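Retro notes (design track)

What went well: tokenization of the new backbones is finally stable.
What didn't: we kept losing track of which sequence belonged to which structure.
Fix going forward: every design gets posted as structure first, then sequence, in one message. First example under the new rule, 302 residues:
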């Protein structure tokens, strides 16, 4: 006689999910040693009418790094991100993600490349008529429609908790959340499919200093724990110093330099010098130096 309290047998969706996940794991394993740069952009041109945003822009993003992307207003940072994820068709150039052109549709046997990245847009871009949990479930419904409804709810709850939000947030609407909570809810949605790549567009914009610092720590922790590669657009100097492994600078319609902040400070490009050595840049460095001095002093007393 069967035990009424025993867990239910696996439902019909599991074989499909396992096969798809096995295929995805195999693809990731094969690529791990082959692709040092999951994102490769070469000779990119983006033009709107007579206005040229990018001209001969090239960039490589290393596996496992947080790459900060900076540039003045209107230099096309978001346009670059949209080009990489296929929302903006470039005028010319080549973009490869995981060694495959984003224009290559592949075939039915391949994992949809879009399921291998997550995106946090400026402002979060949450659907206002859906709860936080329902927002997180949107990509799950699109790429894994066969998943059981309760299992989908469970995934959404887990992803929301992963970003540090309380469990009850799942049932709330975006309008009921603070700015920082909306950012985290949108981040939870970007993590719904267990992505390998994470695109963050101004993740600390509009947050107070404490909230921005917490968002930076969360990004760093998730990157390290989940093994992510992060493409991070920002104007926030604190973010660049605190969590970015390298920084790519867009000016004069292309990427003029890529490197650590120390390497960038050694360049003589006027915009780079003004950005990192201007009043705000100096203030950030001075504050970091003071913090390190205090930490060192406290360690000495311990």
């Amino acid at each position: 006689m069967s035990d009424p309290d025993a867990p239910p047998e696996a439902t019909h969706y599991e074989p499909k999910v396992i096969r798809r996940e096995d295929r995805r794991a195999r693809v990731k394993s094969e690529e791990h040693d082959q692709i040092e740069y999951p994102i490769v952009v070469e000779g990119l041109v983006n033009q709107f009418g007579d206005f040229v945003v990018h001209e001969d822009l090239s960039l490589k993003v290393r596996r496992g790094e947080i790459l900060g992307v900076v540039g003045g207003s209107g230099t096309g940072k978001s346009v670059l991100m949209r080009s990489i994820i296929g929302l903006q068709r470039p005028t010319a150039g080549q973009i490869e993600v995981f060694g495959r052109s984003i224009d290559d549709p592949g075939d039915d046997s391949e994992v949809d490349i879009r399921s291998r990245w997550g995106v946090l847009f400026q402002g979060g871009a949450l659907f206002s008529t859906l709860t936080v949990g329902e927002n997180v479930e949107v990509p799950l419904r699109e790429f894994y429609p066969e998943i059981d409804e309760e299992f989908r709810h469970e995934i959404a709850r887990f992803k929301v908790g992963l970003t540090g939000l309380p469990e009850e947030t799942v049932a709330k609407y975006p309008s009921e959340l603070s700015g920082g909570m909306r950012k985290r809810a949108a981040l939870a949605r970007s993590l719904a499919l267990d992505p390998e790549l994470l695109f963050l567009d101004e993740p600390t914009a509009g947050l107070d200093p404490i909230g921005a610092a917490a968002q930076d720590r969360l990004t760093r922790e998730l990157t390290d724990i989940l093994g992510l590669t992060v493409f991070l657009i920002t104007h926030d100097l604190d973010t660049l110093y605190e969590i970015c492994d390298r920084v790519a600078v867009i000016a004069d319609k292309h990427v003029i330099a890529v490197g650590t902040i120390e390497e960038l400070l050694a360049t003589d490009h006027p915009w780079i010098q003004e950005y990192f050595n201007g009043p705000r840049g100096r203030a950030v460095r001075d504050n970091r130096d003071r913090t390190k001095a205090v930490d060192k002093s406290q360690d000495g007393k311990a």
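Added context from the reviewer: Residues 1-20 have pLDDT under 50 and may be disordered.
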